[in-house]
Design goal:
Layout lengths: L1 H15 L21 E6 L2 H11 L3 E7 L3 E7 L10 H7 L6 E7 L24 E6 L2 H10 L4 E3 L10 E4 L5 E6 L5
Parallel strand pairs: 1-4, 5-8
Antiparallel strand pairs: 2-3, 3-4, 6-7, 7-8
Length: about 180
Amino acid sequence: LVNAFKTRRAPTLARTFHSTTPATMPRTADTESFKFNHTMIRIKDPKLSLPFYMDTLGMDLLSEQNMGDFTLYFLGYDHDGISALPAEQKAKARFNREGILELTHNHGTESDTNFQGYASGNADPGRGFGHIAITVQNIEEACARFESLGVPFKKRLTDGKMRHIAFILDPDGYWVEIVPGSLTL
């Protein structure tokens, strides 16, 4: 499989990485139905994380599944009316859409005094994962709201070179990038 990818895709990518034109790869019949469904992050305490994602960021809880020693929470922006569906249909619908955030809570971490937390991906050890991003209509108003709610910032609009984006921190220290609806990099 790796060799098939290199053989078919490498010439196109090699040419494109050195230009300012983004790589465009034709979708094949094998991949035309693929969607980016969700990403998962581990959380220490759902009593802190769920209010952050639901109340502070306005996400909807699309489904929750207790798996015994851990619970999965699937959140997203409900632009499709999924939240109004009966629980069984709602759970099925979450896999047929894009842009889902899965929060995984391993039971007991919230009360374990020795638990050191999860690596956010932005510091050693554990550097790798960077952030999720949320688009807002008015970034100045959104940042003022976050400030008034006491949300910690990693980067304010006035910090650094990129003054049109901000980063806030969730209860576990994960970075959440806040971007305007129109952004030129």
